[in-house]
Amino acid sequence: MIKHLFKTALSLFGKLLIAKFFAFVLSVTLLMALSGLIGSILTQFCAFMLVVVLLYSSAWEIGDKDANMASIGRRKRDALLGLKAGLIAAVPDLALGIMLLLSKGGAISERFSVLYSLLNCNYLPLQQALLPPTLTAAEQSWAGYVIMALTALIAPMCAAFGYALGLNRTSISEILFYHTPESRARHEERLKARRQKRRFHA
Q1: Is the dihedral of CA 30, 31, 36, 40 positive or negative?
Q2: C-alpha span between 17 and 157 (Å, rounded)
Q3: Distance CA 54, CA 158 (A)
């Protein structure tokens, strides 16, 4: 089970890196095309959704696969595995958040916020709003630093939520997009076929 936990954490960490890369590309593209408050809000929303959707969907698939394995007795159910794996995957971001708070307290250079913005680029527009680069660390608010540090918890929350729903075979897309009994039945058939294929390869 420990091996599976760290394997899941590594997978989520990889997805988080991918999400950060595309969020950076998206942020640069949108901020060049759009300026002002609307551009910043739209950029941050798109970057945020990119992280949420990618981590949630990845965790959901892992949870769904674990549900298959548990149903045939090859793996124990652990509803908290998504949260634990998400926290492990977010260790670098949690460390960055702590260091950001230390920079506000003067324990390390206040210029660390510049490095933080590069390493945590998926929340760059939010950081620019909360921690304006034109102000010194002393002039910036503690609330802005705390909020930016807490963004490191978004990834574990997405992983925990997605894995728990996948483990219980609950699909948000099914609830939102498949309203009629016929569409739900067709969707369920596709899910069953996918699960059987996974079980066969397992």
Answers
A1: positive
A2: 16
A3: 9
